[in-house]
């Protein structure tokens, strides 16, 4: 069933969009990521303009993240105080990111920026995550007793001022690192149309020292407000939010997030990380190939120009 998307100005199969939304919703529930790192490139691949894909995907992330967060809320694995601090940084970063997005759009360079950002970030994060998760999986499968990683030792996070106690996470650290992490994720949300979970989750574990059990739920909690704010800014300044596209992605995403949360509880953390890293690298490879290989549309564009 074809449906015309007025802002994107393309016709797409409605069931394809529902399926993509459901797939990304499952990932959201399983990994604690908004899923935008996968959905936005998938929208590129089916012909949605990058600027519209970024702005609209931020809207879909709100719903799938909220759905996934509710499941974690019921298990009491959401650190509200930490999430609120991360959100403060995220809102500042998102505002800056939208200003940068608008500037590059006026120069006509925004599509290239979006795709290059994806290749760079997904390549670095996917590579590091894959190496680390394979090592963790190997240690988990070995018969030798494994010492748990020590994350509670003092590091640079504990030496900064403005400390706050985060009871759910069992931390007493400065609020500055969480704000900086939130700002970085906010910029990514505005430019790349992602919730930033693929950076937020590792940062919460390895930089802030949060226990893994509360990381996923807190990440989803942080993503909700930041991506909602990003969507609002894009809608009012760029007019690139396609509501018809957003609604179809929302429906699939909400259903998928509940399924993903159930799947996530049945898999080991190491297995989840390997799967996520593999997906990130796969999407990165496809985007890089699209940038390097000469597009087939060059001929059709030239033909259209000739007729006009």
From TrEMBL:
<comment type="similarity">
    <text>Belongs to the 4-toluene sulfonate uptake permease (TSUP) (TC 2.A.102) family.</text>
</comment>
<feature type="transmembrane region" description="Helical">
    <location>
        <begin position="116"/>
        <end position="137"/>
    </location>
</feature>
<keyword id="KW-0812">Transmembrane</keyword>
<feature type="transmembrane region" description="Helical">
    <location>
        <begin position="43"/>
        <end position="63"/>
    </location>
</feature>
<keyword id="KW-0472">Membrane</keyword>
<feature type="transmembrane region" description="Helical">
    <location>
        <begin position="272"/>
        <end position="293"/>
    </location>
</feature>
<dbReference type="InterPro" id="IPR051598">
    <property type="entry name" value="TSUP/Inactive_protease-like"/>
</dbReference>
<keyword id="KW-1003">Cell membrane</keyword>
<dbReference type="GO" id="GO:0005886">
    <property type="term" value="C:plasma membrane"/>
</dbReference>
<protein>
    <recommendedName>
        <fullName>Probable membrane transporter protein</fullName>
    </recommendedName>
</protein>
<feature type="transmembrane region" description="Helical">
    <location>
        <begin position="175"/>
        <end position="208"/>
    </location>
</feature>
<feature type="transmembrane region" description="Helical">
    <location>
        <begin position="214"/>
        <end position="233"/>
    </location>
</feature>
<feature type="transmembrane region" description="Helical">
    <location>
        <begin position="240"/>
        <end position="260"/>
    </location>
</feature>
<feature type="transmembrane region" description="Helical">
    <location>
        <begin position="84"/>
        <end position="104"/>
    </location>
</feature>
<dbReference type="InterPro" id="IPR002781">
    <property type="entry name" value="TM_pro_TauE-like"/>
</dbReference>
<keyword id="KW-1133">Transmembrane helix</keyword>
<feature type="transmembrane region" description="Helical">
    <location>
        <begin position="12"/>
        <end position="37"/>
    </location>
</feature>
<dbReference type="Pfam" id="PF01925">
    <property type="entry name" value="TauE"/>
</dbReference>
């Amino acid at each position: 069933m074809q449906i015309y998307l007025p802002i994107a100005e393309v016709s797409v199969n409605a069931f394809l969009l529902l399926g993509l939304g459901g797939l990304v919703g499952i990932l959201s529930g399983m990994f604690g990521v908004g899923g935008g790192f996968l959905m936005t490139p998938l929208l590129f691949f089916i012909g949605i303009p990058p600027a519209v894909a970024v702005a609209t995907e931020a809207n879909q992330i709100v719903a799938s993240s909220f759905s996934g967060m509710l499941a974690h809320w019921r298990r009491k694995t959401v650190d509200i105080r930490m999430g609120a601090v991360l959100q403060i940084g995220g809102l500042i970063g998102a505002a800056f990111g939208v200003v940068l997005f608008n500037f590059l759009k006026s120069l006509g360079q925004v599509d290239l920026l979006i795709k290059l950002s994806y290749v760079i970030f997904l390549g670095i994060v996917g590579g590091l995550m894959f190496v680390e998760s394979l090592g963790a999986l190997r240690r988990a499968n070995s018969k030798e007793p494994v010492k748990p990683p020590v994350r509670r030792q003092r590091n640079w996070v504990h030496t900064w001022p403005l400390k706050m106690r985060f009871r759910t996470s069992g931390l007493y650290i400065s609020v500055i690192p969480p704000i900086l992490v939130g700002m970085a994720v906010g910029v990514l949300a505005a430019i790349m149309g992602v919730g930033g979970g693929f950076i937020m989750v590792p940062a919460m574990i390895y930089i802030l020292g949060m226990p893994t059990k509360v990381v996923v739920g807190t990440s989803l909690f942080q993503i909700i407000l930041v991506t909602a704010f990003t969507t609002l800014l894009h809608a009012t300044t760029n007019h690139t939010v396609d509501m018809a596209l957003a609604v179809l992605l929302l429906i699939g995403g909400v259903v998928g997030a509940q399924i993903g949360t159930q799947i996530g509880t049945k898999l080991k953390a190491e297995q989840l990380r390997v799967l996520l890293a593999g997906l990130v690298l796969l999407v990165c490879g496809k985007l890089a190939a699209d940038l390097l290989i000469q597009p087939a549309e060059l001929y059709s564009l030239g033909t259209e120009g000739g007729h006009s």
